[in-house]
């Protein structure tokens, strides 16, 4: 098990700032806050992260899904194994002519012609789950890029993305989602479909040449097929994230591996999680904010627990997470629930909560927090004594990813003025 990163020496003084070079000027703790537990700046592709996490956090719980049937708990070693199996199975489906060049081939040609920067595209229509993460990283590890969208999006929008992205294959959440797409999907040049469930749907309109596999069937293929090396560079396309299409047809935003690698390196300047810190995953991972948040916390050895709006209140109490990545509407719904619970309690409880909330709102205004995304970090507190300790609440304001402009830590107990 990895060493607790907070066991590094205290950096209260300047005693270890020796030498004239800029690197030696920083204290041990300051260097940790710039690099995190692990320095990922030398990665050439995002999936390389999982080999490192397996070595560093192998037996630490990585993913917990208490609401799936059956409930799932996977360690970092098991997650990496499933990603490799999915990737190897995916390579059996990708056309040989579309696969990325392997490392033995000459990749020095012009970038516009370099297939390592223009990988095959696989559409991924599914919502937040541990299977989504395995599929997303498995697709990239196989040498492809994914075009992602929610399984609940309008069928016409999904079909447009499938055609516009020129996806050669489709990974879809379940048979219900596939059924919503109707027979029009078979008129597109889709060579295969993989379900993230293990259903066996009856699809009378499916052409015989279009392969249909379940999640377990693809993993089994990967067990029998060794993973082939691919030549992925930091500039290679990693994903296409499509806009909502409110002002016209959705537009695909191209993100490279370097884009994601930068985020997991840069975010260490904001937060430095402990190995095993629990996080609640509730935002859609096909959206960039929730997706980058999950990549980062997992890169630092956190334990991710999947939840949803139905179980959020219960999971907050059960798992007492250190980190929850959310957006304003989520916190509004939590606030409304808290207000309702206080209305049902004795009157003497309400003033202390009102003081806390006024303090929080003042912090928001001080740092210009409006409708932009907010990352809230909750830690356990002593309900009886309100003893000071780790910050109870931390609000992070980001104008754009990679440009975090302010952060406020509330060192006072909840309810303090």
Explained architecture:
The chain has 13 helices and 15 strands. With 417 residues, the chain is of the alpha/beta class. The chain folds into 2 domains: 75-98 and 115-256, 3-Layer(aba) Sandwich (Rossmann fold); 262-410, no CATH class. The strands form 2 sheets. An 8-stranded mixed beta sheet has the order 2-1-11-10-12-13-14-15, with helices on both faces. It has a 7-stranded mixed beta sheet with strand order 7-6-5-3-4-8-9, sandwiched between helices. Helix 4 crosses helix 5 (130-141). The two termini are 41 Å apart. 35% of the residues are buried. Residues 1-23, 101-115 and 369-417 have low confidence and may be disordered.
Features:
Rossmann fold, alpha/beta, globular, 13 helices, 34% helix, eight-stranded mixed β-sheet, 417 residues, single chain, seven-stranded mixed β-sheet, disordered C terminus
Unreliable stretches: 1-23, 101-115, 369-417
- What's the overall average pLDDT, rounded? 78
Tell me, what's the shape? globular
Supply the number of helical segments.
Answer: 13
CATH architecture descriptor name of the largest domain: 3-Layer(aba) Sandwich
N-end to C-end Cα span = 41 Å
Main β-sheet, spatial strand arrangement = 2-1-11-10-12-13-14-15
The count of DSSP E runs of length 2 or more, i.e. the number of strands, is 15
Coarse structural class: alpha/beta
- Strand coverage percent: 15-25%
Fold-level CATH name of the largest domain: Rossmann fold
Order of helices and strands: HHHEEHEHEHEHEEHEEHEHEHEHHEEE
């Amino acid at each position: 098990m990895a060493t607790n990163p907070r066991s590094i020496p205290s950096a209260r003084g300047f005693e270890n700032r020796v030498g004239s070079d800029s690197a030696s000027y920083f204290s041990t703790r300051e260097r940790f806050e710039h690099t995190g537990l692990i320095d990922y700046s030398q990665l050439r592709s995002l999936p390389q992260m999982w080999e490192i996490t397996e070595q560093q956090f192998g037996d630490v719980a990585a993913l917990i899904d208490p609401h799936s049937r059956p409930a799932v708990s996977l360690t970092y070693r098991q997650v990496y194994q499933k990603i490799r199996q999915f990737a190897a199975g995916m390579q059996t489906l990708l056309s040989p002519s579309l696969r990325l060049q392997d490392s033995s081939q000459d990749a020095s040609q012009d970038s516009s012609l370099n297939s390592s920067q223009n990988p095959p595209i696989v559409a991924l229509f599914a919502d937040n789950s541990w299977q989504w993460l395995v599929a997303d990283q498995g697709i990239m590890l196989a040498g492809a890029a994914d075009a992602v969208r929610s399984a609940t999006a309008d069928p016409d929008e999904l079909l447009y993305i499938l055609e516009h992205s020129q996806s050669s294959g489709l990974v879809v959440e379940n048979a219900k989602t596939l059924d919503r797409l109707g027979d029009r999907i078979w008129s597109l040049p889709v060579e295969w479909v993989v379900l993230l469930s293990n259903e066996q749907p009856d699809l009378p309109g499916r052409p015989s040449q279009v392969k249909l596999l379940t999640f377990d069937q693809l993993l089994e293929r990967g067990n029998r097929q060794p993973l082939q090396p691919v030549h992925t560079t930091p500039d290679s396309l990693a994903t296409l994230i499509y806009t909502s299409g409110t002002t016209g047809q959705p537009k695909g935003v191209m993100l490279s591996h370097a884009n994601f690698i930068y985020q997991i390196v840069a975010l260490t300047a904001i937060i430095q999680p402990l190995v095993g810190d629990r996080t609640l995953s509730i935002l859609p991972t096909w959206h960039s904010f929730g997706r980058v948040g999950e990549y980062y916390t997992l890169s630092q050895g956190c334990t991710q627990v999947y939840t949803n709006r139905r179980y959020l209140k219960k999971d907050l109490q059960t798992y007492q997470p250190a980190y929850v990545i959310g957006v304003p509407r989520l916190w509004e719904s939590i606030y409304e629930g808290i207000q309702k619970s206080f209305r049902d309690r004795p009157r003497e409880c309400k003033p202390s909560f009102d003081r806390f909330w006024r303090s929080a709102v003042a912090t928001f205004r001080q740092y210009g927090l409006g409708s932009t995304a907010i990352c809230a970090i909750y830690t356990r507190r002593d309900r009886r004594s309100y003893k000071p300790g780790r910050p109870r609440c931390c609000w992070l304001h980001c104008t754009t990813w990679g440009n975090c402009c302010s952060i406020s830590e509330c060192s006072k107990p909840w309810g303090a003025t």
